[in-house]
Amino acid sequence: MNALEQLKNHLAEIDDLKNAAGVLGWDQQTYMPSGGGEARSHAIGTLSRLSHEKFASDETARLLDEAEKTIQNLANDSDEACLVRMTRRDYEKSRKLPDEFVAAWSRDAILSNEVWRHARGANDFAAFQPHLEKMLDYARRQADYYGFEKHPYDALLDDYEPELKTEEVRVIFAELRAKQVPLVQKLAAQEAPRDDFLNRDYAPEKQGAIGMRIVEKFGYDTQRGRLDIAPHPFCTNFGRNDVRITTRYRNDQPAQAIFGIFHEAGHALYEQNTAPSLSRTPLASGASMVFHESQSRLWENVVGRSLALWQHFWPQMQEAFPENLGDVSPEEWHRAINRVSPSLIRVEADEVTYNLHIMLRFELEVALVARELEVKDLPEAWRAKMQEFFDVVPSDDKDGVMQDTHWSSGSFGYFPTYALGNLMASQIWDKATGAHPEIEDDIAQGEFGTLKNWLTENLYQHGRKFLPPELALRVTGQPLQAAPYLRYLSGKYENLYGIQNAK
Asked: Which of 119, 152, 189, 307 could, after both became Cys, cross-link 143 (CB 3.0–4.6 A)?
């Protein structure tokens, strides 16, 4: 067995341990009884410690040293060269984190998430506060272990979007805010579309059925995936042949579940279509969270909220909900699901205001990590930011500072990737439709193969072979930028709201 094969076998065992922990994490969010949190935290903590010990070991370093000698004559973009290069990067970061730190963080994150679930339901921030303080402490310590040149938040960002810096995010967000706030104001001056039918009583099982029927047409393979219910929708995978999605239901908000399914299926399409040759290696996943979110947002919004899609599927929607939608046209549905209105909840926000929700969280996260804001002051800071960004203030913490799950598990640095994923989605869409102008006509026929195949060839199959800046150039020919997304937003919404000759 040569050095590269030895490295692959070593990494495959680590991947198995991570997948085992992942299954336990999925079960925690979906089926675990409410009293199982403590035992689950120990199990996941142990698996996390074992996988970290094995990956950050001297044996990994030895195998990497040997493997690096064998790839010198291989193409820089070969699977083998990319595997060794990316594994070396991961290893150098991972070995900076002590084994017990990783285990303790994993255990406490499970417990924190359980407390968050109950505290959110009870609108009890005081119960959650000490756990959030502990998660923030882990994040600050993680940044210190990794090291950073300019800002501790840089170190946390790198886990989700390698090479991205805090200052780059600030510059992009400033450009977005300067354009999106006036667009919100312009649209607010127009007559709001009818949406009374969105508040009628929709059976949850029918919501799930229509959502799944559509994403199966997108290409989501239910022989290698499934749909379940979770308090905060997510997608998870244990290899390309087991990629699971979740959503949540409200009888009077069918769009929440349906578009939640679209969103998570976008993530799942990425994972299901990585190259089989990358399986059980660190490359067998999406390149970064910006690229991952680009796919969830592309399938949810660019495709899923298009008039063409709903004109095709409207007979099936009316068949599923004849009493609710019998008096509604696909055009009215399209306008309603794209209605722009400042709101409290990020996951229910429209496209035009969504990025503002992310900017709010980004500013708070940076302040928390830099010790410029303490957790005890977070609810009031949240309300102040909501007033500043939306002129809407939550009446409680349940729909305010506790609405997202990310901080409960210590995921500081994740939020910016949602907004940046919107930008990348537009760049990718422009490139795909430029290569295949028939894609938009295909959608009107309920056909998505051309788009999905282009994405597989140009993005999905590569997994984590390339760092995000290089992958952006490979896929779109441009670095990440705001202009395509801003053109998409203004074009779509000025047309939808009937604004003529907009500048």
From this structure: 152
* Strand ranges for 169-266 from DSSP E: 227-229, 235-237, 243-247
Q: Is 264 a catalytic residue?
A: yes
Q: For the chain, how big is the Rg over CA atoms in Å? A: 23
Question: Among residues 161, 264, 271, 300, which one is catalytic?
Answer: 264
- Which three-class secondary structure state does DSSP give residue 266? helix
Return the bridge partners of 229, or none.
Answer: 247
Distances (CA, A) of 31 to 26, 27, 94, 204, 228: 8, 5, 31, 18, 9
Q: Which residues pair with 235 in a beta bridge?
A: 245
Instruction: Tell me the pLDDT tens digit for each residue of 371-407.
Output: 999 999 999 999 999 999 999 999 999 999 999 999 9
Contact (CB, 8 A) for 336 and 195:
yes
The closest alpha carbon to 272, from 104, 459, 118, 60, belongs to 459
Sheet order of strands, 243-247 included = 227-229, 243-247, 235-237
For 97-124, write each residue's pLDDT tens digit.
999 999 999 999 999 999 999 999 999 9
